[in-house]
Amino acid sequence: MAVVEASGLVREYRMGTEVVRALDGASLTLDGGQFVSVVGPSGAGKSTLLHIIGALDTPTSGTIRVDGTDLAALGDDEASEFRRRRVGFIFQFFNLVPTLTAWENVALPMLLDSKSLRKARPRAEELLGRVGLGGRVNHRPSELSGGQMQRVAIARSLMMGPKILLADEPTGNLDSRTGAEVLDLLASVAHDEPDRLVLMVTHDENAAAVSDRIVTVRDGRIDGRPA
User: Fold this and answer.
1) How confident is the model over 7-50, as pLDDT tens digits?
2) Do the bridges between strand 164-168 and strand 87-91 make them parallel or antiparallel, or are there none, so unpaired?
3) Which of 10, 30, 45, 166 is most open to solvent, judged by the fewest CB atoms within 10 Å of its CB?
């Protein structure tokens, strides 16, 4: 089943009197059960594509459906709810709350969804066990290594049971061994659920090689040539 269906995506930004076209007719279809990398040179449109798929930005023209939802038809409140409930985000610098424990950071999306932390704790601890941190549930970010913090971030991204995880340079702040462990975890997260898609933007060719599919973006278009 297609989790992402994009056709003819154009995204233009105005910078003074100049119009910059970050995406120029990009089209692609991405199925669930896959770990997909998006690669390309700086300024090619990778992050813009990721932001549109995650409902963080809207296209100037073209169509985009994610998990069956027409993102262009969403209002601001609907887009916010879509991001909170249907998409998991993983960032290069983890974005953990330093004063919260590991399980509290994982449970945070439920708190933002007006659920109590107490009720969310069993699920949060289950997810920490899933990413190999069952013994670190009460540790704060300052007590964790970089790889462990990224594992907490991955667990947090799964809290609402999303169909799609969007990872922006998830290994960019990690050493090669730890980065490889995180990539293996992302692959297993994608493959464990037949309808879940993990989509990663990366500049690292070695990281991209681990994925099931590589999507190359050049000059705002999806390039059919090998990365």
Assistant:
1) 999 999 988 888 989 999 999 999 999 999 999 988 889 999 99
2) parallel
3) 10
Q: Show the tokens assigned to 167.
A: 């990872």
Beta bridge partners of 199: 36, 166
| DSSP structural state of residue 118 | H
CA 160 to CA 110: how far, in whole Å? Answer: 7
pLDDT in tens, 41-88: 888 899 999 999 999 999 999 999 999 999 988 999 999 999 988 999
38 CA to centre of own chain:
11
Name, in order, each residue with C-beta under 8 angstroms of 211's C-beta and a sequence gap of 6 or more: 34, 35, 36, 37, 187, 200
- Give the CATH number of the domain where residue 199 resides: 3.40.50.300
Question: Cα–Cα distance between 119 and 51 in angstroms, integer?
Answer: 31
This prediction has a pTM of 0.90
Residue 199 lies in domain: 33-58+76-223
Distance CA 203, CA 172 (A): 9
Task: Give how many domains the chain has, as a whole number.
Answer: 1
